[in-house]
Amino acid sequence: MSSQRSSATVDAPPAIELRGVGRRYGERWALDDVSVTVPAGATLVVFGPNGAGKSTLLRVLATLLRPHGGEARVLGEPLPEREWAVRGKVGLLAHEALLYRDLSARENLRFHARLHRVPEPRVEELLERMRLAGRAEDPVRTLSRGLLQRVAVCRAVLHDPPLLLLDEPRANLDPAAAALIEPLIGRTSGRTRVITSHDPAGGLAEADLALGLRDGRVALSAPAHDADAAQVEELYR
Amino acid sequence: MRPSVALLRKDLLLERRAPEAVPAMLLFSITTFVLFHFGLGRDEVSGQLAAGVLTVTLLFAAILGINRLFVSEQEEGGFDGVLLAPIDRTALFVAKATGLFLFLALVEVVAVAAFAILLLGPSPWPALPGLLLVLALLNAALAVVGALVSALAIRTRARDLIVPIVALPLLTPALIAAARLAAPLFAAGGAEALPTKWLAVLALYDLVFGLLAYAVFDFLLED
């Protein structure tokens, strides 16, 4: 396993603490000795080429995958022992929208609202804020990628989670739509965020901490102000 | 119960919006009865043969439904959304088993009528109360084992193969009990009383597998 460690430190209780975390698929380690600490309210941006382990890291943090090595704490709870205590406090925006294609945006959000015990007015509030009310009754399979991403953002923040895990959240969004989702998943939302990105300059501008992965190992770990775009671009060479 | 109800409502809505499982099971059942009609070369069957034809057909039809049980979750990516919710995962088992039970009941309304028209010799009416009880117990077995096996298969690439390979042996005792139970109902001389021994066997099967499934379902969904 790699010996590199995160040096990120901020004066807030950690929302995420990973020490030597590994996760394998069969014999291949998709994450290998990953260590990072993310203070509550901070933003960690994860860079790395395709297959570097970014999405696997998000899925481990979301409790959808169990770590196969190391120690992981999310929102103060050790994983996997108390993963049930983390569920419901995490908002995941993945590559897939995690929506049922034959249900409408409203039906999907109402379904998730029931599972999370969220009052239904919150659904209508989010549909209005995302300017989806006019398409709220259409099956989501008929929505464009951009509109689908806006519904997925609504689903991810429906239960007002303190931790957001965002896998390239602005993919498929035009500038106006990106601005629309900013209050919900941007820095001003006040949530702890872990974001995957392929945009060195944009990602670093948004980050408090930068983590670079290559072949599942930590290749870059630093406060964002100590990292530069050239270091991030090096990950992709 | 609220998460189970929410999950069940979603499954029923999806099946209503884009029917898959129920039409497939129904078409399969009717086609199989037609095949038996010509394959056996008989216009009428009764007794153990009739009970066997009906229960085996329903069992194979159920396999189609079991194969589709978690497909909406898998294909749409919605499964992760459900797993992220702060709910007891056995709620998913309750919802899936109840959904399959309801789908089977819906299929049987038409399939049993088709069976009576195409194959059954004796009048079906005297057998109806007993048959409802037998089908309810058989459906419970199919639903419980089906939800369990479907959850097991969802994580595998060979889902369509895993379901029949695992479910059919597990369901064999339920099939035997249901066929033995239904045989006197279809007796050539008119419906006879249900054999209590097989009634107890099938009820016990439902209870044991219901408890077993409830206990292990959570572990099946673990990564």
Q: What is the CA-atom radius of gyration of chain A, in angstroms?
A: 18 Å
Straight-line N-to-C gap of chain A: 22 Å
Run of helices and strands of chain B: HHHHHHHHH
Envelope shape of chain A: globular
| Separation of the first and last Cα atoms of chain B | 25 Å
Uncertain parts of chain B: none
Q: Specify the biggest β-sheet of chain A.
A: 6 strands, mixed
Tell me, rounded to a whole number, the average pLDDT of chain A.
91
The whole-number mean of residue pLDDT values of chain B reads 93
Number of helices of chain A: 8
The count of β-strands of chain B is 0
Regarding quaternary structure, what we see is: heterodimer
User: How many separate structural domains of chain B?
Assistant: 1
Query: Tally the helices of chain B: what do you get?
Result: 9
- For the secondary structure, the number of strands of chain A is 10
Taking pLDDT < 50 over at least 5 consecutive residues as the criterion, the unreliable ranges of chain A are: 1-9
* Category from helices, strands and their pairing of chain A: alpha/beta
Tell me the series of helices and strands of chain A, N- to C-terminal: EEEHEEHEHHHEHEHEEH
Q: Biggest sheet of chain A, strands in spatial order?
A: 6-7-8-3-9-10
Please describe what this structure looks like.
The complex is a heterodimer of chains A (237) and B (223). By secondary structure, chain A is an alpha/beta fold. Helices cover 30% and strands 28% of the residues of chain A. Chain A has helices spanning 54-61, 83-86, 105-115, 121-129, 145-157, 175-185, 200-206, 229-235, and strands spanning 14-25, 28-39, 43-47, 69-74, 77-79, 90-93, 163-167, 192-197, 209-214, 217-223. Chain A has a six-stranded mixed β-sheet with strand order 6-7-8-3-9-10, sandwiched between helices. Chain A has a four-stranded antiparallel β-sheet with strand order 2-1-4-5. In chain A, β7 (163-167), α6 (175-185) and β8 (192-197) form a beta-alpha-beta unit. In chain A, α5 (145-157) packs parallel to α6. Chain B is mainly alpha-helical and 223 residues long. The A-B interface holds A 62-66, 84, 87-90, 92, 94, 96-103, 107, 111-112, 114-117, 139, 155 and B 2-3, 6-7, 9-10, 13-14, 17-18, 72, 75-78, 80-87, 222-223.
